[in-house]
Every structure is written in structure tokens, then in C-alpha cells.
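User: Predict the full complex structure for these chains.
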Amino acid sequence: MEDSEQIQNGKQTENEANEPVDGQETLYLGIDIGTYTIAVCTSEGAKIVENCAVAYEGEEFPKDPENPKVLFGKAAFEQTDLPVKEPVREMMQGNSSDPGPLRYILEQCLKSAGIKPESGESYAIIGVPAGADTAYKQSILEMAEGLFTGAMVADESFCVAYGNGLLENSLIVDIGASKLDICHVNGNVPGEEDHMKISFAGDNIDQELINLIKEKHEDSKLTKQLARQWKEDHGYVGFSYVKCKVELPLEDSSRDVSINEELRFACESVIPDVVSGLTKMISDIQPDMRELVRNNIYVCGGCSKIKNIDNFIEGELKELGGGKVSLFDDPDFVVAEGARKLTERMPREFWAQMNV
Amino acid sequence: MSSLTWSKNEKKANKNRKDFTPNIYRKPVKGNGEEGDENGATYSPEQAKNGSYRQNPRVKELEYDLENIKEKYEAEIRQYREKETVLAEVKARYESEMDEYRQKQDHLKKQMEEVTKREKDLNRKCALLKSAASKVEDRIPDAEVNDLNEKRSAFEKEKSELEAKFSELKESRTEYEKQLSAFEDNRSQLHNQQSVYEEEMQAYLEKKGELDEKTRLLEEQLSSGEDITLDIEGLNFSGAVEIVRSRYFSELKELNRKRADLRTLREELDNEEALLMAKNSGVEEIKAQIENEFSKLKPRASELEDATREYEEKAKKHSENERMLTDIISRYNAEYSLFKQKQSELRELKNIQEKQEYDLVRRKLAAFESGKLLKSEVCRINSLSEKLEEKVSEFEENIANYDTNRLSYEEKLRAHTENEEKLREAISQYESELKVHEDKRSELENLKLSLSESEDTLKEKQSEIDSHKKELEIEKEGLLAHQKEVDVERTELESELESIKSKRENNERLEKELESTSSELETQRRELEELLETTRKDIGTQVTVHRQHLDIKKMSTKLEQQSVYIQTLKKSLEDMQKSVENSQEYGVFADIVKMNLEIRK
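Assistant: Here is the predicted structure of the two-chain assembly.
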């Protein structure tokens, strides 16, 4: 991976030659708009991650975004007065095509990091799920319109593979909040036949955890947000020495309980889908390439933070022919970083084509 | 002095006396009184009157003998002096030769010292050489050479393996290049087809737009109730629609076919790419293997280099030692030749010395013989002096006889006077005779005077003889002293001869020692030659090892060149990979852009 990083760092100089002479540096951004989080990486080195949620009154997003009653990110989840809306989820489900809330979140994220893309030339590539429909992609491009000099969408899995030099015969497993994508990257932008979408993902784990805890503690009053928090903080698969004790909210009080088993069961609930998906994907690949691909599996997405998930998947794969599963060092920014690199490497004439 | 000589001399003397004395001067025999008396009767006053007394044969004989003796003595003295001068010359020559001999002896001694010094130096150098040779032999053990050979064989083996792998890599590279070129061709074909397809697509879209426009117009016309007329003669609406449809479907079919072709081409391209990737990975694996082996080989190469460096140092030292050895050998040869030359010179000098010694001995013998002769001469002189003494005693006896004769004469004279008295009577008779007698008497007195004169001369002669005798005694003493000196010289010569003998012995001993040292040197030389031979052999083996080492070096340089070539190939491969990646990337970017453009549409 380091080699690819170095190669790509070396390649960065190609676009540096295309820098404008007026003194203003061109800003390249890589954006990962997930269902639950939004992550931004810039060519200046800034990295922003925020919950992709917004809270506002009413059904329609206010036209004046400076409205103090519009909250975004973590703040949106932390309040209970306003209804929390996850614009990506709504857009993906086709419930909404308004890119306003998403644009607002992105703008606020950039603003919080002191980035002003409108002040100069700025180009961005936004990661979208591999199997996302055209309407969603159009909405994303619409959202980015006017915000950057040029914007494009690219498959998240491809961005991951590109950013980490895994363009040849790799399987990228993206366990997000709302979906589980398994994508076979083989040099090109993956097509429809190269990826598999499974609807069991992080949200389902959260729900499973809630259900399991509810089964054990009937009087528990557990929210999805809290279950997600616990999953992110303590989630594990397989065996762990760490005892996971949480303060379980009840109807009118709370109780300290150990949720080790529940958490493990909940987290492991995604593994069969992942393994079966991987097996399916591997079986679709040419037989002589299977071994290569099998040993080149990478897990990313929010659920890749679940402890021991790589070894667990590897263990499960052993019974089905084996394989090597790896994780990324910085799973929050792995897509955004890849998208940034893609942005930086994208030739100017292509950007020009997009601006026409 | 034997009695025989005496008797001989007496006989000789008698003979001489018989030969040279006339009968008239014959000495009257002693004891022959009767005869004497008879002879005495012959000494008549008439004989005395005739003057025969004055010419005494005995005196004359004695005088003659004395003269003969004197002459002989003088001749002997002359001979003796001549011999003495010869002896002095011989002595001077002997002394000069002795000086020369001493000088040569000194020279010889010096040379001997030099030779011993050189021999010592040579021995020391030989010891140094031996120690150096042994050190050299110790320094390059067989195990090391074997180890080097093993390393070399292992290295060659690895090299051959590497070469085989390299050839495999080369073949795979050529295959890869071929495939890459084929892939590039396919790619370019695909691009061309894609561009054609895009152009056709564009045309198709344009036509579709036109058709749509026409359809719209027709629909408008149809809705407005206008008579649908086409620009084309003989075509009504349904026909036109059919034509358009058929054309549309044919174009669609064509498009689908092209799309299918494109897809198959793409699949082929993908397959080729996958194959290429697999091969690439194979090449990578081979490369990794080669690198692995190269990394394994590197420390060995460094070990080999170290060993080579050590070997070079040893070879250098060995060559230095060899050079030293050759120097020492050349010096030894030069010194040995010098030594030989000096030995030959010494031999010549020895021969000369022996010759001189032989001459000296011969001369000594001659001197000894001359001394012997001198002694015999001295003896002879002594005998002659004794004879002279005898003769002197005889002369004295003769003088005594003369006295007796005179006494007898006086007696006779007295008888005469008595007879005169007796004759006075016959004075008258003898008055005339008396006068004669007085004359005779005066004559006799004259004779007497002459006789006294002769006596004086005889006395003078005797004194002269005495002085001669004294001189002879002095000479005898001188001769004795000279003999003593000669004896001393003889003893000295003997001692010198002894010293020469001892020196000769010493020389012989030295010669023997020299011979032994020369034999030792010869053996050492032989050893050195053997050593030289072994060192030459060693050098030969070292040279072969060095040559092999050079070959190894050549091979290693070749390998390095090949590795460099591999590196360049790797680099070019990387560049190609980069370019492929770039092209792939470009394709990817194009795909993304296309996707985005499609989304925007």
C-alpha cells in the first residue's frame, strides 16, 4: 500500500504542473457520503468526518440554512427536539431528491474545517455506492453543483481500491450502515456484474443488538443511536477478554449490564452474509484468478471497526477454501482519501469536459 | 779429512815433485847417509864454484808449490765468493718471494674472510628465504584454496542457475512484450472500434433525432388532418414508417451486433489482460526469486570478494617474496659465481704458491747442496791449510836441513881451513888458486847474502803466509759465522717451511671447509632450486587459481552487468507497467467521466 501511496504521491506532481499561475492553489477534495457519516479529505491535508444527519423543523428543508434551528452532524443526533433526518438514506430510498440538506451538511463540514472551495478552483470526487441508482448519483452531482469548480461521482469500492493500490484482483467489502457491498475490483471501474449488494449491514446489527437486549431486558429502552454507539465502542466478533458493561436505559431508570454476548451475537449476525457474499463473488471469478482474489480481501466501512472482524471472516472462509482478509488503518477516511487521490490524478481535460 | 786424501796428496805431491824437479835439484833422501855421503861427495867445491847452490831445486819446488797453492786458494776464494754472491742473490730472491708469498697469504686471508662473510650473509639470506618460503606456504593453506574452489564451484552453479532463470525471464519478457504489443494492438483496435462506434452512435443519435423530428412533424400533420406527404416520391406514411422502422431496426441490429462485438472484444481484452496480469505476477515472482537469490548471492559475493582480496594480498606477498627470492637467488648466483671465481683464483694462487714453495724447496736444496759444497770446500781449504802447514813444517825442516848443511859447510870450511893450513904448505901452489878461492869466497859470500836475502824473502813469505793464514782463519771464522747464519737461515727456512706446511695444512683444511661449505651451499642451492620449483608450481597453481578468480570476477562482472541489465529491464518493465497503469488509469478516468456524463444527461 505504501508503494501505491508513493507512486500516487509521485503522480501528484503531474497535476501540480497544471496549477494556475495566479497564485491560488487548486483544491482537490475526496468526499465519502455515507448513510451515517460523511468524510472529507482535501489536498491541503484536512480531514473531516461528521455524522451525515440533519435536524430541522418541518418537512421541507428551510431555504435559509443559517436558521439556528437547523442542526447537523452529531449535534442532530444529540438533540431530541427536532426530527433527525438522514438525507442520504432518504435519497437512496427514493423518499427525497432534495440535495439541500446534504449540501448543507457538506458546506458546514467544509466551513468547520475552514475550507472555502468557492474561493478558488476546486475539484471533488464524491464516493457513491457501487450499485447506487442514477437518480441518487444525479442528486449527488446536483448537490455538488456550484460548490466546486468540478465534481464527479465514483464508486466507493473503486475509490478504496484506487487509494490503496488494490486495483488488481481485490475484493472490497464495504460494510456500511445501510448496505453491505462486496466489489471485485480488477483494474477498471467495477460494473454491475462486479459487485454485490446485500441489504444486511450496520443498521441491522444495531437492530439485532436492540432485539437481543430487549429479549434479555424487556424493560429496556434502547435507542438505535445508543445501540450504534455501543457497537462502535465495543463491537467484536469471536472471542474477547474485554467485558462490555453498559448503562442500559430502562423505562424510568438505567441499569449496568454486560452486553458481551448480545454484542457478539449482533456483530456476528453480519458475518454469514459477508462470507456467503464473498463465496459467491469468488465463485463468479475465473478459476485461475480465484486464489489471487481470495487472498486479497479488504474490509472497509463503519462495521470494519468491529474488533477481530478480519480474523473472524478469515476463520469462516477457511472452511470454504480459505482467504486473507485485511483491514484499513483509517477506515473513516479510506474512501475519501481514495477519492481525493482520484481527484488529484484526474486529468484537467476531463474536468473541462465535465464543466462544459 | 781422511788419511787417504793425505796419502793421495802426498803421492800427488811426490808425483809433482818427480815430474817437475830435475835430477840435479832432487832432494837428497833422508836417512840415506851413505847415499848422502856419496852425494855429499858429489858436492864438490867445483859444484859450489859453478853456482848450483844458489839454484836449490828444493826451494824452487817449494816456491812453485806455494805459488800453486796460492793460485788454487785464490781460485777457490773466488769460487767461494761467486757462490756467496749466488747465495746472496738466491737469498734476496727467496726473501722477495717470501714477501710476495706473505702478501699473497694476506690477500688470501682477506679473501677468505670475505668469502666467509659472504657465506654467512648467504646462509642468513637462505635462512630468511626459507622462513619466508615456509611462511608463504603456511599463509596459503590448501584448505583455503579448496574452500575457494568450492566457493567458486558453488558460485558457478548459482550463476548457471541464475543464467537459466535469466534466460527464462528473458523468454517470458519477450513473450510478455509480444503479448503487450498484441494487447496494445487490440487496445488500439478497440479504441478505433469504440471511436467508430461512438461516431456511428452519434450519427445514429442524429438520425434518431431527425427521425423523431420527422415523426413529430408527421404526427402534427396527422393530428391537424393534413395530408401526409413525404419528400420522397412514391412513399406514403405507412410505407415511410415501415422504411424508417426497418431502417431503425436494421441499425439497431447493427448496433447490437457492434455492441456484442465490442463486448466480446472487451472480454477478450479482459482475458488477455488477466493473462497478462498472471504472467506479470509470474514475472514478478521470478523477479522476486531472482532478487532473493541475488540477495543470497550478495553476501557470498562479498565473502568471495573478501576471500579474493585476501588471496590478492597473499598473492602480492607471495610475489614480493618471490621477487625477494629471485633477487636473493640472483645475488646468490652472482656471489656463488664470484665465490667460484675466487676459489679458482685461490686455486691458481695455491698452485703458484705450491710452485713457489717447490722452487723454494728446490732452491733450499740447492742452497743446502751449495752449503754442503761450501763445507766440503771449507774442508778442502782446511786440508789445504793443513798441507800448507805441513809444507811450512817441511820448509822449516828444510831450513833446519839448510842449517845443518851450513853447519856441515862450516865444518867443511873448517876442514878446509884445516886443509888450508895443511895446504899453506903448498902456498906457493895455491897462491894463484888462493885468489880464485878468495873470489869464490866472495861469491859464496854473495851467495850467502843472496841466501840470506832469500831467507828474508822466505821469512817475509812466511809472514805473508802467516798473515794469509790469519786471514784464512778470519775467513774461516767468517765462513763459520756465515755457516752459522746459513744454519740460522736454514732453521728459519725450516721453521718457515713448517709454518708454510702448517699454512698449507690450514689452507687444505680451509679448502676442505670451503669444499664442505660449497657442498652445503650446493645442497642449499639444490634445496633452493627445489623450493623455487615448488614455488613455481605454487605460483602455477596460484596463477591458475588467480585466473579462475579472474574468470569468476569476469563472471561476476558479467552477472553484475546482467543484473544491471535485469534492473534496466525491471525499470523498463516498471515503466511499461506504469504506462500500462497510466493507460488503465486513463481508461478508468475516462469511464468515470463517461459515467458522470451519462448521469448528467
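The mean pLDDT of chain B is 76.
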